Amino acid sequence: MNREELNAVARFLVADGKGILAADESNGTANKRLKSVDVVETEENRREYRELLFRTKGLEQYISGVILYDETIWQKTADGEPLVKILQDKGIYPGIKVDTGAKDLALSPGEKVTEGLDGLRERLPEYRIMGARFAKWRAVITIGAGIPTDACINANAHSLARYAALCQEAGIVPIVEPETLMDGDHSLERCEAVTSRALKALFIALKDQKVALEGIVLKPNMVISGTGCAEQASVEDVANATLRCFRRHVPAAVPAIAFLSGGQSPKDATAHLSEMNKRGPLPWSLSFSYGRALQSDALQCWRGQKDKIEEAQETLLKRAQLCSAASLGEYSSYQG
After folding, report:
1. I need a surface site. Which of 28, 136, 138, 190 has the fewest CB within 10 A?
2. What is the C-alpha separation between 271 and 141, in angstroms, rounded?
């Protein structure tokens, strides 16, 4: 493990107003997105859509890394060019999702634990050869009646830490993603309490597994009200609660925090990030690692039509520009 190299990659991913495009949807999720815009769910159409994203002119001004799904990292264009090379030629780092999904946690109804550690040590060098400079593993924490339990929080923290250690051993920066879901009717205060528990357990586990904190990127949820909560927190309250929680539980040694959007609208995810960055200086760089919040408008524009590719790319670029402004604390809601 080369700590200086890992730290350099982690800092690159959130430097200079840039962030990460999450394009690592599983085939099932990608197919649902295609179906939502009346595009046939095939491997070729998944490839065509992702190629559209990656070929966007000027994307490298705002995007430093792209998280890929296993299918995508091996794919080539119709002309035989690897999709990974399109990113590399732009100076964008390819990354790879390595977990195999959240599965039911035994003896814990309603809770999940993420799997994928079996064989991961053998897979990581292959991904490194393919060009992956970083990886991602997502854990999901559900808020509900009597949950999350300590069993769920600790199981996911342990898996995240073991994954992170394996990545660093292989010279790959781990994106560590403990996501407290926004689904439910919970309050902002409940979300903060659960997020605090998850982060506390995570950093204990990372220490136990000897993970170098300066060589990770944390990809957490923001502290927000549940989607079904009658009282939705303001942008200012979200920023205050999130920063209060993170100052208490995220060590300053962590160089980069790239927030997930977690189902927020593009406008909300951008406004919340910008408001937090206006509260600086902060111990860590705050940026974005958005999937739907970056892609959704472009997908709706494209809808599988070749004559809409350029317009869809312009739409993606505009959203990336707004997210970049938010990572600098310079976004205003009137911008879109």
Report:
1. 28
2. 24
